[in-house]
Amino acid sequence: MVIMKKRSKYLIVLFMFIAIVFVLLFSNTNKNEANEPVVNGNIIHVKNFDLDAKSTNLKTMTEGSIFVEGEKEHIDHIKIVAHVEIEPADWGGVAFYIPDQWSVSSITSSYPEHQSKLKPAEYVSTWMNSSDDSSWRTMIEIGRERNYIANGGGTGTIVIELSPDKKGMSPSESLKIGIEVGSEEKDGKRVMGTDSVEVPVF
């Protein structure tokens, strides 16, 4: 009887030890999962773009990606991340056209980089379209000078964040982002946006 009691105690201690080990392992696993960074957590689509002023002699260009956040049934947020290079002689710069039913929630810009005396915010302008006939609501210009005098050009990164007017907007094949680059003067006429493209988000 004494031997049986001792064995029972050893078994209880052994089971308690095993249980403690399992609890510690499980808690460490959860901590590791909690500390694990989430990559593209709610990104449902990524669209790349690349445009240069090939119709002119200017070396102005932009390239980047459009990140769509949400679920398959609806879109919650769009983020445009673009690298821009604007030639010193170009007064047309780069422009992004945002479609109707979408609002610009924020713009972050480093253009023009490597020029500490200049303020990047002064080289970005936003224009609203009041026409009901246009499919574009907002135009965002980087390095574009409407007095037709080039500002010296440069490079930089632009982040544009968009929010839908209605929560849970459904994906639509007609959702497009317009992009323009370059400028030229020909036969006495000045043209901004010599080269352009419409990037279908879906």
Describe the structure.
- This protein has 202 residues and is α+β, with helices and mostly antiparallel strands.
- The chain has one helix and ten strands.
- The chain has a five-stranded antiparallel beta sheet with strand order 1-2-3-8-5, with no helix packed on it. It has a five-stranded antiparallel beta sheet with strand order 6-7-4-9-10, with no helix packed on it.
- Strand 1 (43-52) and strand 2 (61-70) form a beta hairpin.
- The longest helix is centred in the N-terminal third of the chain and has 34 residues, at 2-35.
- 26% of the residues are buried.
Q: Secondary structure elements and their pairing?
A:
Elements: H1 2-35, E1 43-52, E2 61-70, E3 75-86, E4 94-99, E5 102-109, E6 124-128, E7 136-142, E8 154-164, E9 176-186, E10 189-200
Antiparallel strand pairs: 1-2, 2-3, 3-8, 4-7, 4-9, 5-8, 6-7, 9-10
